[in-house]
Amino acid sequence: MGLAFDPANYAAQLAEKRERLCSLLAPYSAPEPEVFESAPEHFRLRAEFRLWYEQGQPHYAMFERGDKHKAVLIDQLPIASKRINDLMTPLLEACKADPLLGRKLFQVEFLTTLSGEALVTLCYHRPLDDDWDAPAAALAQALNIQLIGRSRGRKRVLERDYVVEELEVAGKPWRYQQIEGGFTQPNGGVNQHMLGWALNAAGENTDDLLELYCGNGNFTLPLSTRFRKVMATELSKSSVRSAVANLEINQVENVTLVRLASEEVTQALTGVREFRRLQGINLSDFNFGTVFVDPPRAGLDPATLDLVKGYDRILYISCNPETLAQNLDELNNTHRITRCALFDQFPYSHHMESGVLLERR
Predict the structure, then answer these.
(1) Are 293 and 308 in contact (CB under 8 A)?
(2) Which residues pair with 46 in a beta bridge?
(3) How would you classify the pairing of strands 335-343 and 34-36?
(4) Where is the active site (predicted)?
(5) By CB neighbour count within 10 A (0-12 exposed, 13-18 middle, 19+ buried), where does 207 fall?
(6) Any binding-site annotation on 218?
(7) What is the torsional sign of CA 283, 289, 295, 299?
(8) Given its phi and psi angles, is residue 354 left (phi above 0), alpha (psi -120 to 50 degrees) or beta?
(9) Which of 16, 171, 241, 258 lies deepest, with the highest CB count within 10 Å?
(10) Could you confirm whether 319 is annotated as catalytic?
(11) Closest CA to 154 of 126, 118, 120, 182
């Protein structure tokens, strides 16, 4: 259950999260966490709304977790970016006015950026054909957005299915292709704090970095400046495509990108299996001194835990402090926490991101 939206109480909620993280990390003698707060309003760059129809008229709606029958009708969402809020009313009014846009429309998804771009996906319970394109193109031009139509098994893209974000890390701008439906950090301001902290914690290195779960290269790009070479791994095909594009956009040339799951990386590095996807890549050319991990909520699996313990330094970003603590039960035998941080990606909820730097004892 989420916490109530109350900017006046934001500092108290953040303090509670800090205490919770300190409690979870206390058994491992962690230092005081560096705390990176969020803007109290308009911090979320993504939002998804179902449409709820009353007397034939659509309204944006959200639902309590686990109850899809009791709709809360809204016309603004203060945690969402100002760009999303500015788009909500004119977009819905246009869909009400034109049956080609509004008929059997059941969901609207927004993806915005700190750089000002916006992509909107309209989801339908009917097939889309060429008739949809003209009014959709007019709407996209009027609102200065990228617009996509989705129906079962179909996706109509007018111009492109991504936005380009620009983030500043340690004074340097980085550009990111963020594709519709792909994972991106929802809180752009806090994401910049995370990237800056990771860069600072990594320090300057003359050896190489192994990165697991690299996604679209969110951390890969800035971290590439702190190591001789980087081998970054990711399983999702769409994330790999975006990561390749982002390396090219930013002219990063010291990163080798490999589409492997974390357990496959373990098998490759330990010589258990050979992978066709590694053809042309000589693993012995790498001298990994640091491993960077940003795993899913389940944390690191046992095989990956065994792998990362083999490196002198482990930089671990976690979206679930409970599974981070479980992993630390094992990692604490070989490594000690020298830095830790709390990143408040999700104000007014119990979720939080954290980071630890572990160094060999």
Answers:
(1) yes
(2) 111
(3) parallel
(4) 319, 353
(5) middle
(6) yes
(7) positive
(8) beta
(9) 258
(10) yes
(11) 126
Cα–Cα distance for residue pair 294/308, rounded to 1 Å: 12
Q: Is 28 annotated as a binding residue?
A: no
Predicted confidence at residue 66, as pLDDT, reads: 72
C-alpha distances in Å from residue 320, one per residue of 4, 78, 326: 21, 25, 10
Contact 170, 199 (CB under 8 A): yes
pLDDT for the residue numbered 3: 54
Q: Which tokens in the block code for residue 146? A: 């990228």
Reference 95, options 130, 47, 144, 60; nearest CA is 60
Domains, the chain, ordered by start: 7-40+187-360 (3.40.50.150), 46-163 (2.40.50.1070)
Instruction: Tokens 């001298």: give the residue.
Output: 287
On whether 294 is known to bind a ligand per the annotation, the reply is yes
Residues of the chain with pLDDT below 50 are 1-2
Q: Of 117, 165, 264, 353, which one is the catalytic site residue?
A: 353
**pTM higher than 0.70:** yes
Amino acid at 238: S
3 state SS for the chain: CCCCCCHHHHHHHHHHHHHHHHHHHHHHCCCCCEEECCCCCCCECEEEEEEEEECCEEEEEEECCCCCCCEEEECCCCCECHHHHHHHHHHHHHHHHCHHHHCCEEEEEEEECCCCCEEEEEEECCCCCHHHHHHHHHHHHHHCCEEEEEECCEEEECCCCEEEEEEEECCEEEEEEEECCCCCCCEHHHHHHHHHHHHHHHCCCCCEEEEECCCCCCCHHHHHHHCCCEEEECCCHHHHHHHHHHHHHCCCCCEEEECCCHHHHHHHHCCCCCCHHHCCCCHHHCCEEEEEECCCCCCCCHHHHHHHCCCCEEEEEECCHHHHHHHHHHHCCCEEEEEEEEECCCCCCCCCEEEEEEEEC
pLDDT tens digits for range 276-291: 888 888 888 999 999 9
6 is in an annotated binding site: no
Question: Which of these is catalytic: 123, 214, 319, 340?
Answer: 319
Which among 252, 91, 238 is positioned nearest to 178, based on CA atoms? 238
Strand partners, 120: 110, 147
Phi first, then psi: what are they for 241, rounded to 5°?
Answer: -60, -40
Give residue 153's identity as a one-letter amino acid code.
G
